[in-house]
C-alpha cells in the first residue's frame, strides 16, 4: 500500500509540473485544460479512445494549448491538420513529395503523431472524417492492403465551428460518439485579456519536457488499476445514462433521443470520473466527479428531432442532464 501511495504522489507531481509549464504560455482556459488532462490520462483501448471535441470560434487558444501540452512530453510529436472541403483522406495518411528527377517520395502523414489537432473538423467531407475516425477508434491506419499501428500515446483534439457558420457540415451520431468529451470555448476575463495584451509581443517562454511517453502510459495504467469505483457508484453512473434514454421519462421520445444507443456514454463517464478523482488527489470516485463530468461527456450524445440547429441546444441538453442527475440523487445517490 505504501508503494502505491508513493507512485500516486510521484505521478501527481509529474502532472502538476506539466500544468506549471503550460501556464507559462497559456493564460486562462481552465475548463479546456481540465478537459484536456482528464481525456488524455483516461485509460485508452480499441473503440474507446478518450479524444476531445471543442466547439467555438477561431482564435481562442486551442492550438497553442495542445502544442504547449505536447511540448511537456519528451519525444512526443504534435501535428495540426486544417480540415477543408477539398481535404482528401490520403492527405491525412501520407505526404507525396516530387524529387528533382520527377520521381515521387512518400512520407508519413500528420496522423502519424502522438497528439493531433484536427482543426475545424466539420468543414471536411464524410470520407475524410472517416479516415480520422479509423485512427481514433482503432489506433491504426489502413492504406490499401497494409495496416499501420499508431504509436502510443495517440490522442486527438478536434475543433468544430458552430453549425450556423457558413461552410460547415453536421457531424454524424457515430462520429460524435467517438469523442469522450465535447466542451465549448470559454470567454476570457478582463484581467486575462489585459495579460495577453501585455505579453503578446514577447518571445514565447521555453516549455520544459517534464514527463516521458512511457510515464504517460504508466499513469494511465495506474489510474485504471488503483482508482476505486464502488459498485453503487457504478450503478449511479449507469442510471444517469439510462434516464437520458428514450424511455427515461424526461421528455417525449418523439422529441428527444440518445445518440447512439451504445455503451460509450457510461463507460467514458466512469473512466473520466476515475481520472478526475486522481487529479484531485483521491483514490476513490465520488458522486461529485460524476456530476461535474456528466455534461461534457454526455451532452453531444443527446439529440433533438427538430432542434439540431437551435441556438439553445446547449442549454436544453444541460437542463436534461441536470434533471437526470437530480433524479438519481432523489433515489439516494452514492457519495452525497
List keywords for this structure.
336 residues, alpha/beta, five-stranded parallel β-sheet, two-stranded parallel sheet, globular
Task: Describe the structure in brief.
This protein is of the alpha/beta class and 336 residues long. It is 45% helix and 16% strand.
Structure description:
This protein has 336 residues and is α/β, with parallel strands linked by helices. The chain is built from twelve helices and 13 strands. The strands form five sheets. A five-stranded parallel beta sheet has the order 3-6-9-1-10. A two-stranded parallel sheet has the order 2-11. Helix 9 packs across helix 12 and helix 11 packs antiparallel against helix 12. The longest helix has 22 residues. The chain is globular, with a radius of gyration of 21 Å. The chain starts with a helix and ends in a 6-residue tail after the last helix. The mean pLDDT is 84.
User: Sheet with the most strands?
Assistant: 5 strands, parallel
Return residue spans where pLDDT drops below 50 for at least 5 consecutive residues: none
Strand order of the largest sheet: 3-6-9-1-10
Number of strands: 13
Number of helices: 12
Distance between the termini: 27 Å
State the helical fraction: 40-55%
Strand content: 15-25%
Q: Any idea what the shape is?
A: globular
Rg estimate, integer Å: 21 Å
**Which H/E pattern describes the elements?**
HHEHEEHEEEHEEEHEHEHHEHHEH
Mean pLDDT: 84
* Secondary structural class: alpha/beta
Blueprint of the fold:
Blueprint: H1 2-23, H2 30-41, E1 51-55, H3 62-71, E2 73-74, E3 78-82, H4 89-93, E4 94-98, E5 104-108, E6 115-119, H5 126-138, E7 140-143, E8 146-149, E9 155-160, H6 173-177, E10 179-184, H7 190-199, E11 211-212, H8 213-226, H9 231-243, E12 256-258, H10 264-279, H11 287-298, E13 302-304, H12 313-330
Parallel strand pairs: 1-9, 1-10, 2-11, 3-6, 6-9
Antiparallel strand pairs: 4-5, 7-8, 12-13
Helix pairs in contact: 1-8, 9-10, 9-11, 9-12, 10-11, 11-12
Amino acid at each position: 500500500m505504501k508503494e502505491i501511495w508513493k507512485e500516486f504522489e510521484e505521478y501527481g507531481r509529474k502532472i502538476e509540473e506539466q500544468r506549471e509549464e503550460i501556464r507559462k504560455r497559456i493564460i486562462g482556459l481552465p475548463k479546456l485544460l481540465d478537459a484536456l488532462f482528464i481525456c488524455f490520462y483516461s485509460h485508452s483501448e480499441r473503440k474507446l479512445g478518450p479524444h476531445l471535441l471543442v466547439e467555438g470560434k477561431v482564435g481562442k487558444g486551442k492550438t497553442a494549448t495542445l502544442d504547449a501540452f505536447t511540448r511537456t512530453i519528451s519525444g512526443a510529436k504534435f501535428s495540426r491538420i486544417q480540415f477543408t472541403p477539398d481535404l482528401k483522406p490520403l492527405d491525412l495518411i501520407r505526404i507525396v513529395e516530387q524529387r528533382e528527377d520527377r520521381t515521387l517520395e512518400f512520407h508519413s502523414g500528420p496522423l502519424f503523431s502522438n497528439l493531433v489537432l484536427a482543426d475545424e473538423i466539420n468543414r471536411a467531407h464524410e470520407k475524410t472524417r472517416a479516415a480520422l475516425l479509423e485512427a481514433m477508434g482503432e489506433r491504426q491506419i489502413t492504406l490499401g492492403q497494409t495496416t499501420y499501428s499508431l504509436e502510443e500515446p495517440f490522442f486527438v483534439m478536434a475543433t468544430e465551428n458552430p453549425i450556423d457558420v457558413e461552410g460547415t457540415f453536421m457531424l454524424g451520431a457515430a462520429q460524435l460518439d467517438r469523442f469522450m468529451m465535447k466542451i465549448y470555448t470559454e470567454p476570457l476575463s478582463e484581467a486575462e485579456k489585459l495579460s495577453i495584451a501585455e505579453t503578446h509581443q514577447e518571445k514565447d517562454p521555453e516549455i520544459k519536457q517534464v514527463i516521458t511517453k512511457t510515464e504517460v502510459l504508466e499513469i494511465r495504467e495506474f489510474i485504471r488499476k488503483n482508482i476505486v469505483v464502488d459498485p453503487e457508484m457504478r450503478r449511479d453512473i449507469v442510471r444517469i445514462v439510462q434516464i437520458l434514454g428514450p424511455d427515461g421519462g424526461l421528455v417525449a421520445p418523439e422529441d428527444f433521443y440518445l445518440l447512439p444507443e451504445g455503451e460509450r456514454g457510461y463507460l467514458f463517464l466512469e473512466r473520466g470520473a476515475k481520472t478526475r478523482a486522481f487529479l484531485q488527489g483521491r483514490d476513490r470516485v465520488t458522486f461529485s466527479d460524476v456530476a461535474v463530468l456528466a455534461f461534457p461527456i454526455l451532452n453531444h450524445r443527446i439529440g433533438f428531432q427538430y432542434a439540431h440547429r437551435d441556438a439553445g441546444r446547449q442549454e436544453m441538453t444541460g437542463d436534461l442532464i441536470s434533471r437526470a442527475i437530480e433524479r438519481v440523487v432523489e433515489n439516494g445517490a452514492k457519495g452525497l
